[in-house]
Specification:
The complex is a heterodimer of chains A (about 190) and B (about 210).
Chain A lengths: L2 H20 L3 H22 L4 H17 L10 H21 L7 H4 L4 H6 L12 H7 L2 H12 L4 H8 L3 H22 L1
Chain B lengths: L2 H9 L9 H25 L5 H4 L3 H24 L9 H22 L5 H6 L6 H8 L1 H12 L6 H20 L8 H26 L3
Helix pairs in contact in B: 2-8, 2-9, 4-5, 4-9, 5-10, 7-9, 7-10, 8-9, 9-10
Classes of the chains: A mainly alpha (about 190), B mainly alpha (about 210).
């Protein structure tokens, strides 16, 4: 299969999973994020050749960004363009932060950048990220940390988490939402 | 945390997203911006005294259409730029159209006027204050639109900031039309445009700092 055809068939499958996930289908959404993380890893690894240690952190940062902004995907827009714009934004952001500390050539100049490549390459080998999200999670205030721990790590429903924490159901939902955004900001800020 | 753990964490108990976040946030910001500009205009400037008479003149409505056209096009730009990977597509043409139209109209006005009247139709009586007052009235919309965009995902930050600023400027100008006595096309094509470009420039400069996510 050509790179373009491979990319197109991957794209349609991913797009369906994302749309189902946005309606609350956790299984489809899990499949979307899992496949996406392999594509992102391949994309970042090619562009961060000089800093392999950064790849997994950036994959996690991009996944959090994509999750937090999943509502900005327009169902009529190519998914590749949307993911590529976010991946490239996070990559450039990382390079800018690093540029403050060391001189470097921009890998975007050395590796040709095209959106179709994103979904035609994948890398399932997850390395350990250096930045530990568990530590960042511990920095969040209780009103954000507890909802995330209860619903996302322990797998309780919103109603169960509300009872377990004594918070209201809407406070649980808001806490998860704001907590994941705060987590994304912490990842970006710590490097 | 391993990436697989993060993926599981994000997917577990995922809630359905609310529909139309981009349109909703922008609608709120435009509403707040217009109300804020209206309040500022009534408190600081007041309606033009001859408003009831002015609305009978076609040029009053041409002026509103010029400003509203820019507001509409910059709203489209701001909304598209709030979604990663959307790009501007044909929106730059929609932005240029109202400006070109008012310049063409202005050129006809200047060509048809006696030489002695030409400076008057460019400078009117309020050119020294007009751009600054439009910029002042754009402040509530500017703040509200940056709030709206910060909750979304702009990836071209200077451009997104400029689009939000231009939209704020055109909303300020829309409200300013109810105070301002000027109706000459050469005036509008110069000072109104300048007034709207002040917040656009500030937005473009502040975008990378304020819209980063």
């Amino acid at each position: 299969m050509t790179e373009q055809a491979q990319s197109d068939s991957n794209e349609e499958r991913l797009r369906q999973s994302l749309l189902r996930g946005r309606d609350g289908d956790a299984v489809a959404y899990h499949g979307f994020l899992k496949a996406l993380s392999a594509h992102l890893r391949a994309y970042f690894r090619r562009r961060l050749g000089a800093w392999p240690d950064e790849v997994e952190d950036l994959v996690q940062e991009a996944l959090l960004a994509i999750h937090n902004q999943r509502q900005t995907y327009d169902a009529g827009q190519p998914l590749t363009a949307w993911v590529h714009a976010i991946a490239k934004y996070k990559l450039v952001d990382l390079l800018r932060r690093r540029a403050g500390r060391e001189r470097l050539t921009d890998p975007l100049d050395t590796v040709p950048d095209n959106a179709a490549e994103l979904f035609s390459t994948a890398d399932g080998e997850a390395a350990e990220a250096r930045g530990d999200l568990h530590k960042l999670l511990a920095q969040l205030p209780d009103r954000q940390r507890l909802p995330i721990v209860r619903t996302k790590l322990e797998g309780l429903s919103v109603a169960e988490a509300a009872i377990a924490t004594g918070m209201s159901e809407s406070a649980i939902k808001v806490g998860v939402h704001r907590g994941l955004k705060a987590l994304a900001a912490l990842i970006g800020g710590e490097r | 945390m391993k990436t697989d753990e993060l993926v599981l964490l994000l997917a577990t108990g995922v809630e359905p997203v609310e529909p139309h976040p981009v349109g909703r946030r922008h609608a709120v910001a435009v509403g707040v911006g217009l109300l804020g500009a209206g309040a500022l205009m009534l408190i600081l400037l007041g309606l033009r005294p001859d408003l009831a008479e002015a609305v009978r003149r076609p040029m009053f409505w041409i002026k509103l259409a010029f400003v509203a056209g820019l507001a509409w096009a910059s709203l489209l730009a701001a909304m598209r730029l709030s979604r990663p990977g959307m790009g501007l597509a044909w929106v730059p043409a929609a932005l240029a159209a109202p400006a070109l139209a008012i310049w063409i109209l202005g050129a006809f006005v200047l060509a048809g006027a006696a030489p002695a009247e030409r400076p008057g139709s460019v400078f009117g009586t309020t050119w020294t204050s007009c751009p600054w007052l439009i910029a002042l009235l754009s402040v509530p919309a500017f703040v509200a639109l940056f709030w709206a965009m910060r909750g979304l995902a702009p990836t071209q930050l200077p451009l997104s900031g400029a689009a939000a600023g231009l939209l704020a400027g055109s909303l300020g100008a829309l409200v300013y039309c109810l105070h301002c006595p000027e109706l000459a096309a050469p005036f509008l094509g110069t000072w109104y445009l300048l007034g709207m470009l002040i917040p656009a420039l500030i937005g473009g400069l502040l975008g990378p700092r304020l819209l980063r996510w």
